[in-house]
Amino acid sequence: MTRKIGIVLVGLMALLQLAYACFAFLDPGGFATLRGTQLVDFGDADWVRVYASRTLFVALIVGYLLYRRQFGLLAAASLFGLVMPVTDAWLAYQASAPTGVIAKHVATAVFLFVTFGVLRAVQSSSSER
Q1: Residue pLDDT tens, the chain, 129 long
Q2: Would you say 34 and 23 are in contact if contact means Cβ atoms under 8 Å apart?
Q3: How far is residue 74's CA from residue 69's CA, in Å, rounded to a whole number?
Q4: For 42, what's the count of Cα atoms within 13 Å in the CB-facing half-sphere?
Q5: Of 118, 55, 110, which is closest to residue 82 (Cα–Cα)?
Q6: Torsion of CA 25, 70, 10, 117, to 10 degrees
Q7: Cα distance between residue 60 and residue 15, in whole Å
Q8: Domain-by-domain residue ranges, the chain?
Q9: Does pTM surpass 0.70?
Q10: What is the DSSP letter of 63?
């Protein structure tokens, strides 16, 4: 059961990253607002698209690791990935973003931490066999 939960959590992670990549590429201004910041000028849209390409890379790597059932690597990625929502929450806070936007970043961090715990349990149960 823990393995299925881990697969679902990682699948959601990959799909969310894929959706963010598409949204950031197609609507940089809307994506910036969603993340709690604003584009200052048209040139900033290029930086959001750079973010989109990196996010697409993360989605593809996470999806591939899930396909290969690399739960140990996915656990590490979930833990190391905490850097992103914590930084996003801080940047949104500094930009005076609405509390809901900041809470969304904190919720993402909690999601990643829970995913890390579940994946560690999956990895432990797999190594006991």
Answers
A1: 889 999 999 999 999 999 999 999 999 988 888 877 788 877 788 888 898 999 999 999 999 999 999 999 999 999 999 999 999 999 989 989 899 999 999 999 999 999 999 999 998 887 665
A2: yes
A3: 9
A4: 0
A5: 110
A6: -130
A7: 9
A8: 2-128
A9: yes
A10: H
